[in-house]
Amino acid sequence: MINVVLFEPEIPGNTGNIMRTCAGTGTKLHLIKPLGFSLEDKYIKRSGVNYIDYCDYTVYENFEDFLNKNKGTYYFLTRYGHKPHDSFDYSNVDENIYLIFGKESTGIPKEILKEHLDYCMRIPMNSNIRALNLSNSVAIMVYEVLRQQNYRDLLRNEPFKGEYYLES
Fold first, then answer.
1. Per the CB 3.0–4.6 Å rule, which of 24, 48, 109, 147 could disulfide with 16?
2. Nearest residue to 58 (alpha-carbon basis) of 113, 94, 136, 4
3. Reduced to 3 states, what is the DSSP secondary structure of residue 90?
4. Helices and strands counted in the chain (H then E)
């Protein structure tokens, strides 16, 4: 199972976008408090549109609470990582994969990262910016895992207009 973990997210629009990505990919979302917003926030609903109801998510009091309740392989996205995000093997569909992202302002605390150096990674980019937007980073990572798993049970054709819409 693919899991996205947001450590103390601050921006409701990012979390709403991530909820939509999770809903569309069957990815479970884990939110670690404190949150910088209310889950009832209108910005969450605007970003997630009406797909939030399809998002499977759990909220945790802190990182320890999350660790105690979830077992699997933890991957940490950080601008300080030395390995590219696609250098890991995510192909085992039976593995619980946790993609952990830090808060928008400061990322994942160094104390946590130091305990998991072999699983710290970075999405490559040039020196013009410090990091990509959180919701973009989540989408890149979720789809890298899905690509390596051959997109599991995701639809390869648009379900509403029909498989041959372009041809008709």
1. 48
2. 4
3. coil
4. 5, 7
- H or E stretch at 18: helix 12-25
The torsion region of residue 128 among left (phi > 0), alpha (psi -120 to 50) and beta comes to alpha
Going residue by residue through the chain, which has 168 residues, state the pLDDT in tens, using 9 for 90 and above. 999 999 999 999 899 999 999 999 999 999 999 999 888 767 676 665 677 889 999 999 999 999 999 999 999 999 999 999 999 999 999 999 999 999 999 999 999 999 999 999 999 999 999 999 999 999 999 999 999 999 988 998 888 998 899 998
Smallest Cα–Cα separation from 41: which of 63, 19, 26?
Answer: 19
- Residues 6+ away with beta carbon under 8 Å from 86: 144
pTM over 0.85: yes
